[in-house]
């Protein structure tokens, strides 16, 4: 167990149930912000959410799908992608609809 986890375990014994519940809410919010297989880094694609190991933005995949591209076509067109990458992209797009919509609109206008 890491030193941080040991410290957290010790703190938990001193917390009330209400404090623990609040801590769980904060932890859940923090974990929910992390998407498996999708990352947004300022130095990659201007900070847009991309599939890890690639520079393929989620909005681009979602836009292609909206235009009728099948998953098979996307996997052919982007050989570095896996089926799991698409599952991750679709989950991210569902959870961040407004962000993806705005990215599509902005990139279509350019």
Structure write-up:
The structure is a single chain. This protein is mainly α and 110 residues long. It folds into 2 domains: 3-32, no CATH class; 38-109, Arc Repressor Mutant, subunit A, CATH 1.10.10. It is 64% helix and 4% strand. It has 6 helices and 2 strands, in the order ααββαααα. It has a two-stranded antiparallel ribbon with strand order 1-2. Helix 3 packs across helix 5 and helix 3 crosses helix 6. The longest helix is centred in the N-terminal third of the chain and has 16 residues, at 17-32. It is elongated, with a radius of gyration of 19 Å. The mean pLDDT is 89.
How many separate domains? 2
Q: Structural class of the secondary elements?
A: mainly alpha
CATH architecture of the largest domain: Orthogonal Bundle
**Average pLDDT level:** 89
How many separate helices? 6
Sum this structure up briefly.
With 110 residues, this protein is mainly alpha-helical. The protein has helices at 3-14, 17-32, 58-66, 71-77, 83-95, 97-109; strands at 38-39, 50-51.
Give keywords.
110 residues, mainly alpha, Arc Repressor Mutant, subunit A, 2 domains, two-stranded antiparallel ribbon, 6 helices, 2 strands, elongated
Fold blueprint:
Layout (H helix, E strand, L loop, with lengths): L2 H12 L2 H16 L5 E2 L10 E2 L6 H9 L4 H7 L5 H13 L1 H13 L1
Antiparallel strand pairs: 1-2
Helix pairs in contact: 3-5, 3-6
């Amino acid at each position: 167990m890491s030193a941080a986890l040991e410290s957290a375990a010790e703190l938990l014994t001193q917390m009330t149930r209400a404090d623990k519940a609040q801590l769980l809410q904060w932890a859940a919010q923090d974990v929910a912000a992390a998407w498996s297989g999708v990352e947004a880094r300022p130095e990659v694609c201007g900070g847009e959410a991309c599939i890890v190991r690639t520079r393929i933005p989620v909005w681009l995949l979602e836009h292609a799908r909206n235009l009728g591209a099948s998953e098979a076509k996307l996997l052919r067109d982007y050989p570095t992608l896996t089926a799991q990458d698409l599952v991750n992209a679709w989950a991210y797009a569902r959870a961040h609809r407004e962000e993806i919509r705005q990215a599509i609109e902005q990139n279509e206008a350019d």
